[in-house]
Design brief:
The structure holds two protein chains of two kinds. In chain A, 48% of the residues lie in helices and 11% in strands. By secondary structure, chain A is mainly alpha-helical. Chain A has a three-stranded antiparallel beta sheet. A three-stranded antiparallel beta sheet of chain A has the order 6-7-8. Chain A has a two-stranded antiparallel ribbon with strand order 4-5. In chain A, β2 (61-67) and β3 (70-77) form a beta hairpin. In chain A, α5 runs antiparallel to α17 (409-419). The longest helix of chain A has 29 residues, at 130-158. The model of chain A is unreliable at 5-9 (pLDDT under 50). By secondary structure, chain B is an alpha+beta fold. Chain B has six helices and five strands; from the N terminus they run αβαββαββααα. Chain B has helices at 2-17, 57-61, 102-106, 132-135, 142-148, 177-183; strands at residues 40-42, 67-73, 85-93, 112-114, 129-130. In chain B, 28% of the residues are buried. Helices cover 21% and strands 11% of the residues of chain B. Chain B starts with a helix and ends in a 28-residue tail after the last helix. The chains are: A mainly alpha, B alpha+beta. Chains A and B meet through α3, α6, α7 and α14 of A and α1, α2 and α3 of B.
Chain lengths: 428, 211
């Protein structure tokens, strides 16, 4: 849509072919008009779904081409939640970027923090002490459970099972309470920082995490009792939204959506970060690649997350949580009043931040939705020159039209739920 | 099929026997944990002097630029804070603030912290720019200090007396009425060019203490 309109072109009068000619004159690429409703001469119908649709899990608009009730073609229209965070990163110091990452995938903020922190730490070449790494793992896995609980509740709600929604949100509340305890807020925690954590966990952390470890397997059993073998659920989800291994890989699908097709690809195993190689856990996979398999994979993943939390919690070492590199982490509070050097470090770090070496890095973490990667380009200054976020929701959403082709319109809702997108993550 | 229904109903009936976890907010309030990041508080020392020394580290640390600090030199005879400088103006745009807590971490004197208060809705946008009077904690020794020395510590907090800490949002900008009325909306008023760009301009300030 450039301003290359020749002055001689008359404005379109509204006839369909007039619009086509105007587009031709303007040189509008065909994909730009793809989201506009067009006159169709055959028996199919174009239907708008969203952006204000309760089952699109945010502001996602789908233009669906229907042949009767069967989806012939689908075009997702994204960008309603575009926030420009990647651009905002460029004008903020590395530490100031952390609150922005919270707001991308807002259902699992600690994992976003972790991904960004790991990228910057890779750039700096520093390592976080073991205690910091273990607490990061605990917070990330709690966030994964919380995110999967929301997915479970809303996915079941979309398909008519109203009850589990309330139970899932009730249980998620405990995870939010832990977030609030350690960081002070329930969702946008900013708890994981470059170089470590916001602070060490308080004493009340232990009983609350123990409570999660002991009660959550039972809760997941309850959910499975309600849903897993429910005949209506099986009818709705089995054989729906199938994606094969080859297609999933070529679409760049990752996370539970890929594992549901049978690829045991989990970054926590494939490229262990933050001491994930210290813990024993399994990577659940499906076999058919349908909605039901993705459901089973996520339910099993919650159990595995509890296992990881249990191991990390029981083996939580003592020691510092932040890197000892004073050029990166803020000095301890008591040193500010006694040491002039610490005070200078404090002022320098707060006003300017730290400088990173020139270069570019990519660091990825396994978010509840898949591979969440941060590609950072540094020009040697105190803020990123460019940051590209490889958002798992975006890549998974790209495979949605493929998965929905040939399905009934009612099953589109099931497929959207099963890829578990967060629109904040898609649009960034 | 019937087995499934029976199993589901049994689970649901079991839930009916357990105690509901619903909190009857706002009648019941959930206690905030010590690290809670709610509305900011500006602290004082025990002798009434303000902890803030006007160094503007909080404004530098803020990722969204919602803090404005106008610092001034202390009068040695009647200091507001220990040290050379103090914050003459301290404003936080609560609509822009994301409550990340970076200001509290940056503060070298622990003058600003994020407190337990989180119900911040208001009917007027300009009242959501918290001024120093709103943020500063009340000081119990105010009356005594005023009797000892009418211009001593806390003398700038005359309006603070008798007011519960952190309840009333701000009323209006200081000395804005005449200047802004002439300059009009959008353009900075005379003498206001130095304001940080995120501080909103109040075109028609409300009356002080309406009603």
């Amino acid at each position: 849509m450039t301003a290359a309109l020749p002055p001689a072109t008359p404005p379109p009068t509204g006839e369909p072919d007039e619009y086509a000619r105007a587009r031709e004159t303007l040189g509008v690429p065909s994909h730009l008009e793809a989201i506009e409703l067009t006159q169709i001469d055959d028996d199919t119908m174009e239907l708008n779904m969203g952006p204000m649709h309760p089952s699109t899990h945010g502001v996602l608009r789908l233009v669906v081409n229907l042949d009767g009730e069967v989806v012939r073609e689908m075009r997702p229209d994204i960008g309603f939640l575009h926030t420009g965070f990647e651009r905002s990163f460029e004008s903020h110091t590395y530490q100031q970027c952390i609150p922005f990452t919270d707001r991308m995938d807002y259902l699992a903020p600690p994992i976003n923090n972790l991904g960004f922190s790991l990228a910057v730490e890779k750039l700096l070449g520093i390592e976080v002490p073991l205690r910091g790494q273990y607490i990061r793992v605990i917070m990330a896995e709690l966030a994964r459970i919380g995110s999967h609980l929301i997915w479970f509740g809303t996915h079941a709600l979309d398909l008519g099972a109203t009850t589990p929604f309330l139970y899932a949100w009730r249980e998620r509340e405990k995870i939010l309470d832990i977030n609030e305890l350690v960081s002070g807020v329930r969702m946008m925690t900013s708890f994981i920082r470059v170089g470590g954590l916001m602070a060490d966990v308080p004493d009340e952390f232990s009983p609350m995490v123990e409570d999660v470890i002991h009660t959550y397997p039972g809760f997941i059993d309850d959910y499975e009792l309600l849903i897993t073998k429910n005949p209506i659920w099986l009818e709705r989800t089995r054989g729906t939204g199938v994606i094969s291994v080859e297609d999933a890989l070529s679409y760049g699908v990752s996370g539970p959506t890929l594992r549901g097709s049978g690829v045991p690809y989990d970054l926590r195993k494939a490229q262990p970060y933050s001491s994930y190689d210290h813990f024993e856990f399994d990577v659940p996979i499906g076999s058919h690649g349908d909605v039901y398999d993705r459901y089973l994979v996520r339910m099993q993943e919650m159990r595995e997350s509890v296992r990881i939390i249990k191991q990390a919690f029981e083996n939580l070492p003592d020691g510092p949580v932040n890197t000892l590199d004073r050029k990166v982490a803020l000095p301890p509070r008591n040193e500010i009043n006694t040491s002039m050097e610490s005070l200078i470090h404090h002022f320098k770090l707060v006003t300017e931040g730290f400088r990173t070496p020139r270069g570019h890095v990519y660091a990825a973490v396994e978010s509840p939705r898949g591979e969440l990667g941060f590609y950072l380009v540094s020009d040697g200054s105190n803020r990123p020159y460019r940051c590209k976020v490889r958002a798992p929701s975006f890549s998974n959403l790209c495979a949605l039209p493929y998965m929905c082709r040939g399905e009934l319109i009612a099953d589109v809702v099931a497929v959207i739920g099963s890829i578990d997108i967060v629109l904040g993550d898609v649009d960034r | 099929m019937f087995k499934e229904i029976a199993k589901g109903m049994a689970f649901t009936l079991k839930q009916m026997l357990s105690k509901p976890i619903t909190l009857q907010w706002p009648e019941e309030q959930k206690p905030s944990p010590p690290r809670h990041r709610g509305r900011h508080i500006l602290h004082r020392y025990d002798n009434g002097l303000e902890k803030c020394i006007g160094c503007e580290l909080c404004a530098a640390a803020c990722p969204v630029g919602c803090i404005y600090v106008g610092s001034a030199e202390n009068d040695p005879a009647h200091p507001v804070s220990p040290g050379e400088r103090y914050a003459e103006r301290y404003e936080i745009n609560l609509m822009r603030c994301i409550y990340c807590g970076y200001c509290a971490e940056a503060c070298p004197t622990e003058a600003i912290t994020l407190g337990p208060r989180y119900e911040l809705a208001d009917y007027r946008r300009e009242r959501l720019v918290a001024t120093k009077e709103d943020l500063l904690e009340a000081w119990p020794g105010f009356e005594k200090s005023l009797a000892d020395n009418p211009r001593g510590a806390g003398a700038d907090q005359r309006e603070q007396a008798g007011r519960a800490p952190g309840v009333s949002p701000r009323v209006a900008w200081e000395d804005r009425e005449g200047a802004v009325g002439q300059a009009g909306r959008g353009s900075p008023a005379a003498g206001q060019e130095g304001l940080a760009p995120h501080v909103p301009t109040v075109a028609t300030p409300p009356k002080r203490n309406p009603g």
